[in-house]
């Protein structure tokens, strides 16, 4: 049985951005960013459909999904495989996702549905830098990439 630990829940809460993969009818991939992913219980993830009609269409046809949540600074995270189920207003899953989203952003954010994913597989995702880089640490990577992104932001703000 899958156990989505409190460590995983905290990680997802802190990163706040994931990517959900589904398969289009023609077999091509569909990748959709989500900022509402949360751990619902020990075996399920949930997220809102705010503006993802392709994701919903794909899940109706084939409910299998893959989800990646990666901290861009530490270059580590988690990958999840599972089966999604559409939940509508009036369900506990819908309230679990919609209520905090609306509390933060207001009801202007539409929550058309909530997707509840029964997680079948969890895997840790780590950059090859941890394997092939000598003396690489999470703190070291985080510091280096924070500097890199700060430098890039400074460069683009002058354009």
Number of domains: 1
CATH architectural group: Roll
Strand content: 35-45%
Radius of gyration: 17 Å
Number of helices: 5
Low-confidence stretches: none
Q: What is the N-to-C order of secondary-structure elements (H for helix, E for strand)?
A: HEEEEHEEHEHH
Main β-sheet description: 7 strands, antiparallel
Q: Mind telling me the CATH superfamily name? A: Electron Transport, Fmn-binding Protein, Chain A
What does this structure look like?
- The chain has 159 residues and is of the alpha+beta class.
- The protein has one domain (6-126): Pnp Oxidase, Chain A.
- 35% of the residues lie in helices and 35% in strands.
- The chain has helices spanning 6-15, 53-61, 92-105, 129-132, 138-156, and strands at residues 18-23, 29-34, 38-41, 44-49, 64-71, 76-87, 113-126.
- The chain has a 7-stranded antiparallel sheet with strand order 2-1-5-6-7-4-3.
- The longest helix has 19 residues, at 138-156.
- It is globular and about 50 Å long.
- It starts with 5 loop residues before the first helix and ends with a helix.
- The mean pLDDT is 89.
Which tags fit this structure?
159 residues, alpha+beta, Pnp Oxidase, Chain A, seven-stranded antiparallel sheet, 5 helices, 35% helix
Indicate the topology.
Blueprint: H1 6-15, E1 18-23, E2 29-34, E3 38-41, E4 44-49, H2 53-61, E5 64-71, E6 76-87, H3 92-105, E7 113-126, H4 129-132, H5 138-156
Antiparallel strand pairs: 1-2, 1-5, 3-4, 4-7, 5-6, 6-7
